[in-house]
Amino acid sequence: MIRDELQVDAALTLAVQPAEGQPDSRASGLTEDLALAELKNHDLSSDAIEQINRNAAVMKSRKVRIVVASHPHTPRRIALRIIRELYTFELMKFALTPAAAADLKRVADEILLSRVASITLGERISIARRSSTLVAGALLLDKESQVWQPALENARLTEAAVVKALQRSMANPAFVAAVSHHAKWSMRHEVQVALLRNAHTPFDKALEFARRIPARQLRDILHTSRLPEQIKSRLRKEREMGAD
């Protein structure tokens, strides 16, 4: 066991160190597996990562590219270049990588969102199910229910993202109704407040939410609500009768 570990270490060392007189080149012995093994070391220096990055053959590996981009010591210029070259689902995977820097994950999310208009319905559905909070929240506004429905069930989706989607004027009636009846989201206070401010919330659900909110807060909410005036009047009247 010890002998095998020493042999691997020796191979890594040879692969990492440039040949004498060739400071900018990588040894030809570096393979995808050796590079991945080396990159597991979170203390790997930026110089060593630069060496890996110069190996064109190894950097053809999509797996290596993602790991290089997410390593904490990778120079930012290298990480950004790699991120911009990632495929759609690689961007999603990178944004969910725990080791990746938060700002780089944000860049990956933004690039992914910039491509949403050009990807297929099937790809959007798949992304909606598994993507980050930012992307799932943005896909709540997709015009296709086949996309926003799985986004609504995304385990990474947050209450704040749902509220933000409800606040957007483009939120469609079907989406608003779905949130109003959703077993999880319709029970959240901030979501109920957002629904009471939305023009498309069904009356029966608006009445249900209004009954759960203190009268003074309800008055403030309805003052800025986009619900039709007749519905707001009904809610006020129902609330006053309930108070009696």
Distance between the termini: 81 Å
* CA-based gyration radius: 26 Å
Q: SSE order in H/E notation?
A: HHHHHHHHHHHHHHHH
Global geometry: elongated
Strand residues, percent:
under 5%
Average pLDDT works out at 89
What would you call the structural class?
A: mainly alpha
What is the tally of beta strands?
0
Q: Share of helix among residues?
A: 55-70%
Number of helices: 16
Give a quick account of the main beta sheet: strands, pairing sense, barrel closure.
Answer: none
Are there runs of 5+ residues with pLDDT below 50, and where? 1-27
Explain the overall architecture.
- By secondary structure, this protein is mainly α.
- It has a domain at about 160-244.
- It is built from 16 helices and no strands.
- Helix 6 (about 90-95) packs antiparallel against helix 7 and helix 15 (about 215-225) runs antiparallel to helix 16 (about 230-244).
- The radius of gyration is 26 Å and the shape is elongated.
- The model is unreliable at about 1-25 (pLDDT under 50).
Keywords for this entry:
single chain; about 240 residues; mainly alpha; 16 helices; about 65% helix; disordered N terminus
SSE blueprint:
Elements: H1 2-16, H2 32-39, H3 46-53, H4 62-70, H5 76-84, H6 88-95, H7 102-115, H8 121-130, H9 133-139, H10 145-152, H11 159-167, H12 173-181, H13 189-196, H14 203-210, H15 215-223, H16 229-243
Helix pairs in contact: 1-2, 2-4, 4-5, 5-7, 6-7, 8-10, 9-11, 10-12, 11-13, 14-16, 15-16
In short:
The chain has 244 residues and is mainly α.
